[in-house]
Design brief:
By secondary structure, the protein is of the alpha/beta class. The chain has a single domain, classed as Decaprenyl diphosphate synthase-like (Undecaprenyl pyrophosphate synthetase). It has helices at about 1-25, 40-45, 50-75, 90-115, 130-145, 160-175, 185-190, 240-250; strands spanning about 35, 75-85, 120-125, 150-160, 205, 225-230. The protein has a six-stranded parallel beta sheet with strand order 3-4-2-1-5-6, sandwiched between helices. β3, α5 (about 130-145) and β4 (about 150-160) form a beta-alpha-beta unit. α1 runs parallel beside α8, α2 (about 40-45) packs across α3 and α3 runs parallel beside α4. The longest helix has 26 residues, at about 1-25. Bound molecules: 3-methylbut-3-enyl trihydrogen diphosphate (2 copies) and magnesium ion. One 3-methylbut-3-enyl trihydrogen diphosphate (IPE) binds near residues 38, 39, 42 and 98.
């Protein structure tokens, strides 16, 4: 009983400080589009002598918590890099598990997401995804399409170089068929050929696990994104870390080439 009271007290103090930070953050400019490279699941598992997929499973819970807080903060879009076009190189059992994660995640949390007015979207190459994966995501997109809260955008089988190259090919095709005229091709019209045509460019990129690279994530879109890196492994990422990233963002001066 005493332990339970202690636990309750601890939770209460932690959550009240988090609460204060949330309120402070909301007074300032909150990034509209936050993108996260959720990295370090494998290392998290390895440290515990667990199979890599245990890290992915744990990481899924963090996705849920992060979504909730992002929504509460008034972030409009949260794009999560869940599987890259290069991740097919991994062992089959790991890839198979990663392809089951969307079903597992949405199976557990879709009702809550609907309740919280979250809209589920995805970017990436759908064609190569197993049917069961695509069905789960397709259903979630359908069931949440009229929601107008946070857009939870999964980058699944996403690769930015392929995306840019495909956009170039479509532009050439449209120019040849007269749908597009070369004079009308500019940064804005070109961006409309990318998978992210529905979204504004990310304001903030977070990458966990200590890797300081983009790993083929939104190369075009992140020309002026603010970057925030942490050594924390994705399964250990918590609300405090997300607030820390946003607080750092709020302290940045974005100049976009101006003065
Ligand atoms: C990120 O964690 C999840 C995916 C890439 C799908 P990793 O699986 O890359 O974890 P590490 O980098 O090996 O620790
Ligand atoms: C990037 O992480 C992709 C995702 C988080 C989905 P990786 O673990 O695949 O990236 P690298 O191989 O370390 O660059
Ligand atoms: Mg990794």
């Amino acid at each position: 009983m005493l332990n339970r009271i202690k636990l309750w007290k601890n939770q209460n103090t932690t959550s009240s400080t988090l609460r204060e930070r949330i309120e402070e953050i909301k007074k300032l400019r909150v990034p509209e589009h936050v993108a996260i490279i959720m990295d370090g699941n494998g290392r998290w598992a390895k440290k515990r002598a667990l199979p890599r997929i245990a890290g992915h499973h744990e990481g899924m819970k963090v996705v849920r918590k992060t979504t909730k807080l992002a929504n509460e903060l008034g972030i409009k879009t949260l794009t999560l890099y869940a599987f890259s076009t290069e991740n097919w190189k991994r062992p089959k059992n790991e890839v198979d598990y990663l392809m089951k994660l969307p079903e597992e995640f949405l199976g557990s949390f879709l009702p809550e997401l609907i309740e919280e007015n979250v809209q589920v979207k995805m970017i990436g190459y759908k064609e190569q995804l197993p049917l069961h994966t695509m069905n789960a995501i397709g259903r979630a997109m359908e069931d949440t399409k009229n929601n107008d809260g946070l857009v939870l955008n999964f980058a699944l089988n996403y690769g930015s170089r392929a995306e840019i190259l495909d956009a170039v090919k479509k532009v050439i095709k449209d120019c040849n068929s007269g749908i597009m005229e070369e004079e009308h091709l500019n940064e804005e019209t070109f961006a409309s050929y990318l998978m992210t045509s529905d979204f504004k460019d990310p304001d903030l990129l977070i990458r966990t696990s200590g890797e300081i690279r983009l790993s083929n994530f939104m190369l075009w879109q992140m020309a002026y994104t603010e970057f925030w890196f942490t050594d924390v492994l994705w399964p250990d990422f918590n609300d405090g870390h997300l607030l820390e990233a946003i607080e750092a963002f709020q302290g940045r001066q974005r100049r976009f080439g101006g003065v």
